[in-house]
Amino acid sequence: MKEYSFTEVLPDAMQERFFYIRHFTSMDDAELEWPHRHLFFSFVWFTHGSGIYVIDSDEFEIKPQRLFYVAPKQVHNWGLYNNNQGYFIAIDYRAATDINLRYTFPFLDIDNADADFHARLFTNILTEFQKNDALSNDNVQAGIRYYLLLLQRIAEKKQIKTSQGNTLIEEFKQLVLSDYSKSFGIRSYADKLNVRTDQLSRTCETVLGISAKQYLLNLKITEAKRLLIYSGDNISEIAFQMGFDDSSYFARIFKKKTGLSPGIFLKKYRKLF
Predict the structure, then answer these.
(1) Are 106 and 60 spatial neighbours (Cβ–Cβ below 8 Å)?
(2) Phi and psi at residue 254, in whole multiples of 5°?
(3) What is the CATH number of the domain that holds 188?
(4) Beta bridge mates, 109
(5) Across the chain, how many H-helices and E-strands are there?
(6) What residues have CB less than 8 Å from 271, skipping those under 6 apart?
(7) Which DSSP letter does residue 260 get?
(8) C-beta of residue 271 within 8 angstroms of C-beta of residue 265
(9) DSSP 3-state assignment of 40?
């Protein structure tokens, strides 16, 4: 499966930028391989059209004023049915760290009464981005930071959880994402993060409501679900890629986390996607 870096989506003249924003139509992105994943954060706001957006193994309806969020490493695909238009924002991981980007929602619905205001914001940020002068990057970052805070307010109003908001957990997550095949214990991850094991565990329990071990397993099982659907690898191969030496133990953990055995999950979802 194709995995796109941030620079691969940027025009040649903008390779030094940490943000990318553009208006899109149904005919855009014909050169991209679908499904795919990427190594940056992205937001897609559909102002017109319809279809289905698949993020990992979850299907969401595309409709006007719906804004989607995709985190690094998530597998995604879409089927567009009608005259789709909207805006796309890509944020490099370095910039995402600076603006404390920690969203968890797959989508937000923008109220119709607020759509014109959002469109003006996107247009202003896009205009600033296209200037590409000495002040452009700082102004674009300020505009995107403002917009993300606006999204957080909307999400809170709609009672949608928006942020994990913890640097240690994000660094822990990135360590796991960097190589799923490692079967490190929590102590090894804590050592790499230069913290005590109990500090890592306590932080996970406080912020996430689960232990560090369960969070580690959740990350691995989420990736296993992606591989079962999209990779073509068998269950034993995927278990090994996720750092499980015993495929039967992997199967037990998978069923406990998802409610389905890997075999049933594969039969149910791989043929759909």
Answers:
(1) yes
(2) -60, -45
(3) 1.10.10.60
(4) 66
(5) 10, 10
(6) none
(7) S
(8) no
(9) coil
Strand 3-4 versus strand 51-55 pairing type? unpaired
Contact criterion met (CB below 8 Å) for 253 and 221: yes
Q: At which residue do the structure tokens 């700082």 appear? A: 138
Element (H, E) at 23: strand 19-25
**Domain contains 116:** yes
How many Å apart are CA 31 and CA 97, to the nearest integer? 29
**C-alpha 19 chain-centroid distance:** 16
Structural domain that includes position 253: 167-269
Residues 153 and 44 in one domain: yes
The amino acid sitting at 256 is K
Which parts of the chain register pLDDT below 70? 13, 26-30, 97-103, 160-166, 270-273
Question: What pLDDT is attached to residue 153?
Answer: 86
CATH number of the structural domain spanning residue 113: 2.60.120.280
**The token pair that represents 268 in the structure block:** 């149910």
Q: Give the C-alpha separation, 269 to 252, whole Å.
A: 19
Among 139, 157, 175, the domain-final residue is 157
Asked whether residue 162 is domain-assigned, the answer is no
- pTM exceeds cut of 0.70: yes
pLDDT score recorded for residue 164: 45
Q: How many domains does the chain have?
A: 2
Task: Decide: 66 and 108 in contact? Cβ < 8 Å.
Answer: yes
Closest CA to 62 of 35, 81, 42, 75: 81
Please, are residues 165 and 102 in contact by the beta-carbon 8 Å criterion? yes
